[in-house]
Amino acid sequence: MQLYVGTTREFIDDAVQHQLGEKLSQSSYEYFGHVKVSELQSWQNSLTAMALQISYAKLFDHGIVVEMELPLSSSRLDCMIFGRDRTGRASALLVELKQWSQVKPSEVEDCIVTFVGGAERDQLHPSMQALTYAQYLADAHQGYDPDSGVAIRPSSFLHNMLPVDARYLRSAKFDELMTQAPLFIGRDAEKFAEAMHLAVGKGDGERVMREALSKPAKPSRKLLQHTAAMIAGEPRYTLLDEQQIAFRAVMGEVRRAGRAKNDHSVIVVKGGPGTGKSVIALNLVGTLSKLGFDVRHATGSKAFTQTLWSVLGNRIKPQFRYFNQFGMSDESGIDVLICDEAHRIRKTSNTWRTARAKRTERSQIEELVHSAKTSVFFIDEFQSVRPEEIGSARLVHESAITAKARYREVELVSQFRCAGSGSYLEWLDQLLEIRKTGQFALPPDEPFEFEIVDNPTQLDVRIREKLDEGYAARLTAGFCWKWSKPTEAGELIEDIVIDGFRRPWNAQPDAKKLAAGIPRAPLWAWTPSGVGQVGCIYTAQGFEFDYVGVIFGKDLVIRDGTWVGQPSASHDSSIKQKSNTRFLECVKNVYRVLLTRGLKGAFVTFLDDETREFVSGRLA
Predict the structure, then answer these.
(1) Helix, strand, coil shares of the chain as percentages rounded to 5?
(2) Using CA atoms, how far apart are residues 514 and 214, in angstroms rounded to an integer?
(3) Assuming Cys at both sites, which of 41, 61, 342, 613 could form a disulfide with 203, CB separation 3.0 to 4.6 Å?
(4) Are 345 and 389 spatial neighbours (Cβ–Cβ below 8 Å)?
(5) What are phi and psi of 77, to 5 degrees?
(6) What Cα–Cα distance (Å) separates residue 581 from each residue in 240, 386, 412, 427, 585?
(7) Strands (E), 231-308
(8) Distances (CA, A) of 173 to 170, 180, 229, 257, 544
(9) Confidence of residue 347 (pLDDT cuts 50, 70, 90)
(10) Per mean pLDDT, which of 109-118, 174-183, 325-334, 360-369 is the most reliable?
């Protein structure tokens, strides 16, 4: 997706006639269904300044793209000018535009502090942002493949900044960055023009641009397929925007804690489905381990942890644990503790197996904070699907205060699942009334494939079609049917019976004997034969597929335009108990999780007619 594509002559003319903002607004409305006032003002100011610079450099035989969405991401680069460099190679100058006039030093490496969004915030150095965008494009899109595609030259342009205010951005600590992605300000017209000519001065840019844009994105990278390399400290994903800030903030706190004897740090990284929480977490484990730190990874998910054990081998078991295994740890005995899916943290670590002598009233969050010099919590508070799951940024912050620890919070916004569509997640959250987003209809040009199918049999057909096309796909359902133990022969019972459709759930977690070809529950999402069973929330949460199918049961229905929870339709004993006052909240979160497991698409069938009609009415 690009909001503006044209020649540099057209771009300059549109700027002179004050039509740039109008054209981008129209494209934004057609694509996203809305236009943000702040974006319109930014376009009018920054793009006009960019047009003046292009005109001054006399770049009239070039292509230009503005507001281009990165593949499988909701992040958008500001501007890219296409042409040929002095050797004749197809090339593009990527320009990150900022309206900033002043910045201050940040405690986070390669970041600065500036006033954005109504407050002072850590932001990536604009040249670092441009550099990571260029690296991401080269990794993710065939048009910019380093060996055969368009060569990308990253840069940044701060048109409002004066030389005295740009000193810090160009200070010695950023020398290497300036070499890789130079920064220009409004007074640098000659230098900026020279850089443009060096990158794309030979022209022929419209042809170069059209050829690059015509090529497809590369296949999406699956987290588990690259986990081993990340744990070995080998980069497999280019982190973008807030992901970079979160990663660098943790690295800075770990180094600080290593220098100070009694310095405790607690970091919360908040983000919705597909914002890259697990990618950052595993990158941190690998990078910190390679640097010699004692780092542990913990979750509350048996499926995710045991799948990691299977992918990485038994030797890593001491490093990948569960939340309830840190109660006996020495204070600050671990350098770094990475808590993934921290919304699944429970009140205490006691279970029915815990001996009376070992039971404690100490909270699980306190145990985790206590055990490490630096504790990192990755949280999506709308993924809590059981009443006993209480992990939240507020509770972590309170524990940090009690422990007299430094506290930092980073929020992830950019979307990397659901075809990179922020609109889909906003629509889904508004639909389920989880949070107010204003996205009442799914945009007509939505890149994420969302389809309502008539029945479970048709849903199964759609999922198997995607498998035949080479995609990863799984069928899931709300917990509305009993979950039987396997037979003595290890065969699974077909518990899910809907008219002519019959399927078993995935195997129970404690199933000891299973027939050939049936994966153990923790490996259902990873093993190809998992397509023969329907996954429940407890085996699907934490995983991703190219396509997900969801059987939307009658435990959550629409009645007279209002969502109603129906415990009588549920077979999940943990949430249907009478003492649970959060049934509606939990079951909404369940379907939110299931409907966001797809990288490219989600197919859903509704067993309740009124609910199907309601959701169908929210499609544009």
Answers:
(1) 40, 25, 40
(2) 48
(3) 61
(4) yes
(5) -80, 155
(6) 39, 11, 30, 26, 9
(7) 265-270, 295-299
(8) 8, 13, 30, 22, 39
(9) confident
(10) 174-183
**Average of per-residue pLDDT across 235-248:** 85
Above 80 in pLDDT, residue 220? no
Backbone angle region of 329, left / alpha / beta, with phi > 0 → left and psi within -120 to 50 → alpha: beta
In sequence order, which ranges of 419-557 are alpha helices (DSSP H)?
A: 422-431, 456-468, 537-540
Asked if 441 and 619 count as a contact pair (C-beta separation under 8 A), the reply is yes
d(CA 351, CA 342): 18
Distance CA(508)–CA(502), nearest Å, equals: 18
Do residues 323 and 282 touch, judged by C-beta distance below 8 A? Answer: no
> Cβ atoms within 10 A of the Cβ of 564, count?
12
Average pLDDT over residues 192-206: 95
CA distances from 492 to 268, 302, 482, 508 (A): 41, 20, 12, 9
Which domains are delineated in the chain? Answer: 2-214 (3.40.1350.10), 224-411 (3.40.50.300), 418-616 (3.40.50)
Q: Contact, 595 vs 604, CB < 8 A? A: yes
Please, which pLDDT band fits residue 33 given cuts at 50, 70 and 90? Answer: low
Contact 286, 236 (CB under 8 A): no
**DSSP-assigned beta bridge partners for residue 449:** 601
Q: What is the pLDDT of residue 313?
A: 76
Q: Give the SS3 label for residue 37.
A: helix
3-class DSSP state of 250: helix
Closest by CA to 72, choosing from 146, 159, 139, is 139
- Under DSSP, the state recorded for 493 is P
Q: Which residue has the higher pLDDT, 118 or 556?
A: 556
Residue 150 has pLDDT above 80, yes or no: yes
What is the C-alpha to C-alpha distance for residues 66 and 63, in angstroms, rounded to an integer?
A: 10
CB-based contact 134:145 (threshold 8 Å): no
Local structure of residue 108 (DSSP, 8 states): S
Structural tokens at position 225:
């397929």
- H helix or E strand, kind and range, residue 147: none
- How many Å apart are CA 589 and CA 156, to the nearest integer? 40
Q: Is the model more confident about 307 or about 592?
A: 592
- CA–CA dist 225, 228 (Å, integer): 8
Mark out the alpha helices in 403-451 (DSSP H runs).
422-431
- Residues 6 or more apart whose Cβ sits within 8 Å of residue 4: 11, 20, 23, 24, 27, 64, 65, 66, 67
pLDDT of residue 286: 87
Distance CA 534, CA 496 (A): 8
- Determine contact, residues 345/329, Cβ cutoff 8 Å: no
Strands 295-299 and 320-322: parallel
Q: How far apart are CA 617 and CA 619, in angstroms?
A: 6
Q: How far apart are the first and last CA of the chain?
A: 19
Average pLDDT over residues 8-17: 93
Residues paired with 602 in a beta bridge: 450, 548
Which tokens is 495 given?
């518990």
Return the bridge partners of 105, or none. 112
8 Å CB contact between 525 and 307? yes
- Residue 373 CA to residue 352 CA, distance in Å, equals 30
CA distance 226 to 276: 14
Residue with tokens 């049934």: 583
